[in-house]
Amino acid sequence: MVADIFELHGWDGYFLGANTSLKDLTEIISEKRPQVVGLSLSVFSNLNRLIDTVKVVNSTFPDIPIIVGGQAFLHCNEECLELFRLRNVSYIDSLNSLEQQIIGVR
Prior knowledge:
It is a single chain. The protein has one domain: Rossmann fold, CATH 3.40.50.280. 48% of the residues lie in helices and 10% in strands. The protein is built from five helices and three strands, in the order H-H-E-H-E-H-E-H. It has helices at residues 2-8, 22-32, 47-60, 78-85, 95-105, and strands spanning 37-40, 66-69, 89-91. The protein has a three-stranded parallel β-sheet with strand order 1-2-3, with helices on one face. Helix 3 (47-60) runs parallel beside helix 4. The protein is globular. The two termini are 19 Å apart. 12% of the residues are buried. The mean pLDDT is 88.
């Protein structure tokens, strides 16, 4: 559904699976130079991995905004605050919010 929202607004997207390594992710970002990187979190216990990923993407590509969202954020607590304090990170809580965000990035 997220990819459909991007396509409806004329964006090209690159869907990477959950098992994409951080090395592969940074290589793809370097090659494609996207306008935004979107990361989804389905299982809350993987929050620290997401935080680490965002930190690496931020330090390697400081000008690329990152949007995060997903089912796991329904269980968000104090641990999520670290993620939300990181530079260039926006939390997307719904498809409608995503649509508003990508309209603003253009």
